[in-house]
Amino acid sequence: MRRTGRTNLKSRSSSPPSLDEQKVQSFMYTFPIRAVIVGGGHRSDIYAEFALKDPGKLKIVGLVDPSPKRTEYLKSKYSIPEENCFSSVDELCKREKLGELIINGTMDQLHVPTAIPTLEKGYDLLLEKPLAVSQEEMDKLCEVAKKNGRAVHLCHVLRYTEFYSTIKKLILDGKIGRPISLTMNEHVAYAHMGVSFVRGKWRSRSACFAPMLLAKSCHDLDIMTWLMAPCRPVAVSSFGSNLQFTKENKPKGATHRCYGGCPHIDSCPYSAKSNYLEHEFWSMYAFGATEGQPLSREEKEKSLATDNPFGICAWDFDREDNVDHQSVCVSFEGGATATFSMVGGASRAQRSLHLIGTEGEIIGIFEDNTITLRKIAPHEGKWFTEKTIKAGAPNEGHAGGDMALIESFVDILGGGERDFRCCDLDSAADAYRIAFAAEVAKNEKRTVFL
């Protein structure tokens, strides 16, 4: 055993804890932490790259992925021994433990089924969002993690960006008093909407088992509950629909495929030609992972014209009961409220928020890295004072949140401090309760009480 000690984490307080109170010693493993990738997709690979940046702290020692091509690529990239490469979690768990940590980046509906055996085997877990695709799954995962004494941290990377962590610090430091009302928006840009939630594997429940609100915006609901903590949500209402991407709205004369003689191929905002060839917006999804020899333009055109689903007209997909926009209203303990609106198909990707407290307010736009702090100031002969805070320049990987998250978690496993950003099961669960309740509220046209 390389684990030498562990102390209990603090439970939730009834009043906002200070930054110092939120730092708790949690784990003590010997560096480098040894990790196994389960699901060798894009997200797992991003977190695993920390092993290349700081090999003294993290080492990738195993891989579970059913794709021989992907396995070969990651095996070479991280120097994983052949005998430590598996096609299923069952194969992995038949072996003695290879290390301390699992980095689970499987598809949404596989998160819990692949996580539970590894928790029971004795691994701690870094789990890509969403945590689960149903309340029952989430409850089961929490039960197994608690029973086996395992740590599960969620990849809610926005907490680890300078933008959102600065806002949380302002709240914890009492800069706006007690939160009263939080308004949040996420505008999903048309290219992202098209590649992931119209043509892609998150377009419908049958494809990924998660509605768009859960698959795309659990990040935002996590930020909502994190900023409003320690007050917890007590009631949820929600409205939304698939307004744009219906067969009735298909452009006149459009063909089934963009490369099928469609007259709109050079003008449609969802044209496969402009999105995936000329501008390469999210083209990694349209043409697969980047391992091996890249496809030529001619090969890509042929793919889009024949068997590639990303070449099909955006209005020809059955999105079932999924939405392209949804709004959620949440009531919290003590009477505070929060609203969140997700809109897909916007011209620019943008996350924004406006939080009003008893003594001031915080306004921010994530993509601009700009936060405005307003304070009530009648004693200064003014309605208010205003201060603009630049919360860092944009970086790769969710404005630096990807690397900050994995580095922080690895440090915690090595005996470092668990700070206010840490997203464990207890901290994350309320966001998912809201997401699951919002689907019920939307579909049944009622308020759901938690």
Q: In terms of per-residue confidence, which ranges show pLDDT below 50 for 5 or more consecutive residues?
A: 1-26
Count of beta strands = 19
CATH topology of the largest domain: Dihydrodipicolinate Reductase, domain 2
Count of discrete alpha- or pi-helical segments spanning 4 or more residues: 16
In total, the number of domains comes to 3
Strand content: 15-25%
Spatial sequence of strands, sheet with the most strands: 17-16-15-14-10-13-12-11-19
End-to-end span in angstroms? Answer: 41 Å
CATH classification class of the largest domain = Alpha Beta
Q: State the CATH architecture of the largest domain.
A: 2-Layer Sandwich
Roughly how many Å is the radius of gyration?
23 Å
- Rounded mean pLDDT is 91
Characterize the main sheet.
9 strands, mixed
Assembly type of the chains comes to single chain
Q: Can you tell me the overall shape?
A: globular
Q: For this structure, what is the CATH homologous superfamily of the largest domain?
A: Dihydrodipicolinate Reductase, domain 2
Helix content: 25-40%
